[in-house]
Design a protein that fits this description.
Helix content of chain A: over 70%
Helix content of chain B: 25-40%
Oligomer: heterodimer
Shape of chain B: elongated
Pfam family, one (chain A): ABC2_membrane_2
Strand content of chain A: under 5%
Protein name (chain A): ABC transporter permease
Distance between the termini of chain B: 61 Å
Largest sheet of chain A: none
Number of domains of chain A: 1
CATH topology of the largest domain in chain B: Rossmann fold
CATH class of the largest domain in chain B: Alpha Beta
Order of helices and strands of chain B: EEEEEHEHEHHHEHEHEEHEHEEHEH
CATH architecture of the largest domain in chain B: 3-Layer(aba) Sandwich
Largest interface: A-B, 51 and 66 residues
Keywords (chain A): Membrane, Transmembrane, Transmembrane helix
Shape of chain A: globular
Organism (chain A): Agromyces soli
Distance between the termini of chain A: 39 Å
Number of domains of chain B: 2
Strand content of chain B: 25-35%
Chain lengths: 287, 315
């Protein structure tokens, strides 16, 4: 044959593969991990989350440490000092959740818009393990990034407060739980958004839906001048999400709605609905 | 089965039974039953919109049939322990995330089945993608996309290959390469199921043809038979006594078309018979030429009533 211009090999089936190939969940996890880190959008999203968290920690720390409320922070009770440093460290989570939610949607909607989903589901024809693999990889990756980021944010906040005579240890009561809780919330939001993206299958629609749920719902309910609206508020995803890590160890008397642990259950409830809907539709629909 | 050359993944059979698929009110395929056998190239031929891609998607479980079923090697595709080792499919050259490099795409696909990096680089080499493997797929030409799709299909060293319009967008060398590749794969005993809307392409590649029109099977036979059946023998006869000759030739099974004065297009009679009849009646003949319909004509004749999107002739 003439191979003057083609760079493809002359015909051969290629060397044989040993008959060891086998679809496994471990393999699916590795595959999803390769997919996650081989897209620029993922890497950028995580970098933006890190930048937001650290940036907000700096802003918030300076603002609180310099006595925004007119008080001398170094004279405040130790528990209050710890609270201020922690608040500064996790402040970025409120904005980070928006970026993470977009990422969660794109992880799957990007596959639908490019047609990649057909490759994914050809390799994993039972489908649900593919969704589970994505969820696990996204959850773990987000959790790890967020934990490291929050620890760094705490370090920055603690250093800024130290300049104002406030010394808070990472091992102070509830400090690790708060930092970890904020990271957990981000990871759960990512998986929630993955479910929404799977249900809606379009990037624009999915992003609009998750941002609507995270941002718009609390605003709308806040504007409704009725008691039931106020009662519903703490059960909205982003409200429950903030409560689950901001009120750890708080005096129950100061809480109007569910406490931190109950709020975690509320967040898990949102996630369960999203993922269950995604699983049913993924299984049922044509790809 | 292991031979001295290593493992040989001999083909499994594709068996479709009464497949029907509707999208809303539109029936994409209706009551399709067919078998695709190992060791040969089976062409899946039909005009655009005939239901070829739908059928192929149903084989690998991407679309669910409304009724009927399809198995590969005796089991539904999803039931296999190593689906990619069973079936390699090129369904759509765009089934790749545009933001990922070709190599990462293949690595991710391979990882699901524990297929190693070595095999990934083998298929990259096999399909001639070495120079672009680390470039993002978004910038690929249609032809490179097709090569990547073929590389992905070959990853699991599958016993069955399903290729939907694999030569779309390929340059002539690429077309030749695909043709030789599928012939080679079938020669190794694999099952090759290849779709196209081009009869000429199929005639050069396939052993067996399944012809689809408007979602139903029009023909399912060896290529030679389909060509023979689709080719109506016509004889071109030029004679100064055309009218007289036409009267003599007239019979229920004979069709005569007079396209211009003194010229007859006769279907249903052999040239020898026409010549003898003319001689017996003392009529001069200036031309007597048996005509063979081209493959393309045979195909068009076969699908004439089954074309979904017909192009009106330009006026």
């Amino acid at each position: 044959m003439t191979t003057a211009t083609t760079d493809a090999r002359p015909v051969q089936g290629g060397p044989r593969l040993a008959h060891t190939a086998r679809l496994s969940f471990g393999g699916i996890l590795r595959s999803e991990w390769i997919k996650l880190r081989s897209l620029r959008s993922t890497v950028w999203s995580y970098l933006i989350v890190v930048a937001i968290s650290l940036g907000m920690a700096v802003l918030m720390s300076f603002s609180l440490a310099n006595g925004m409320s007119g008080m001398d922070v170094s004279a405040a009770p130790p528990a209050e000092q710890t609270g201020m440093v922690l608040q500064s460290a996790v402040f970025g989570t409120y904005f980070g959740q928006l970026v993470i939610a977009v990422l969660g949607v794109l992880i799957i909607s990007g596959e639908y818009t490019t047609g990649m989903i057909r490759s994914t589901l050809s390799a994993v024809p039972k489908r649900l393990p593919a969704l589970a693999g994505k969820a696990v990889v996204l959850f773990v990756a987000t959790l790890v990034v967020a934990i490291v980021t929050n620890l760094a944010a705490f370090g920055i906040a603690a250093a800024i407060f130290a300049g104002n005579g406030v010394h808070v240890s990472l091992f102070a009561e509830n400090a690790l739980l708060t930092l970890g809780g904020a990271a957990l919330y981000l990871a759960l939001v990512a998986v929630f958004a993955l479910g929404i993206g799977t249900i809606i299958r379009s990037s624009a629609g999915g992003i609009a839906a998750v941002l609507g749920i995270l941002l718009l719902l609390p605003t709308v309910f806040g504007l409704i001048p009725a008691e039931w609206a106020a009662d519903v508020m703490p059960y909205l995803l982003s409200s429950a999400g903030m409560t689950m890590f901001m009120t750890i160890g708080a005096d129950p008397a100061t809480l109007a709605g569910p406490n931190a642990w109950q709020s975690l259950l509320v967040v898990l409830g949102w996630l369960a609905v999203s993922i269950a809907g995604a699983a049913v539709l993924l299984k049922r629909r044509d790809a | 089965m292991r031979g001295p050359g290593g493992f040989r993944n001999v083909g499994g059979m594709i068996t479709a039974t009464a497949l029907t698929k509707r999208y809303g009110a539109k029936t994409a395929v209706h009551d399709l039953s067919f078998e695709v056998r190992p060791g040969q190239v089976t062409g899946f031929l039909g005009p655009n919109g005939a239901g070829k891609s739908t059928t192929m998607r149903m084989i690998v479980g991407l679309d669910r049939p409304d009724t009927g079923s399809v198995t590969v090697g005796g089991k539904p595709y999803a039931e296999h322990r190593a689906p990619l080792h069973e079936v390699g499919a090129l369904l759509d050259a765009k089934a790749v995330h545009t933001g990922r490099t070709a190599e990462n795409h293949l690595l991710a696909m391979a990882a699901t089945h524990g297929i190693g990096k070595r095999r990934v680089h083998e298929v990259i080499e096999l399909t001639g993608l070495e120079s672009v493997a680390r470039k993002r797929v978004g910038g690929f030409s249609l032809g490179m996309g097709q090569r990547l799709g073929i590389a992905a299909a070959m990853l699991g060293d599958p016993s069955v290959l399903i290729l939907d319009e694999p030569v779309n967008g390929l340059d002539p060398e690429g077309v030749l390469w695909v043709r030789q590749l599928v012939r080679h794969l079938a020669g190794e005993g694999r099952t090759v199921f290849l779709s196209s809307h081009l009869m000429s392409e199929m005639a050069q590649t396939a052993d067996h043809l399944i012809v689809l029109g408007r979602g139903e099977i029009i023909a399912d036979a060896p290529v030679d038979e389909i060509i023979a059946a689709g080719t109506r023998h016509r004889v071109r006869v030029r004679s100064p006594h055309a009218s007289q000759l036409a009267e003599l030739l007239a019979a229920p099974e004979v069709v005569i078309i007079r396209s211009e004065a003194g010229l007859l297009e006769v279907t249903g009679l052999e040239a020898a018979g026409i010549g003898d009849l003319a001689a017996a009646n003392g009529l001069a003949i200036h031309e007597l030429t048996p005509q063979h319909a081209s493959l393309e004509e045979a195909y068009l004749a076969l699908t004439a009533d089954a074309v979904e999107y017909r192009t009106e002739a330009l006026r």
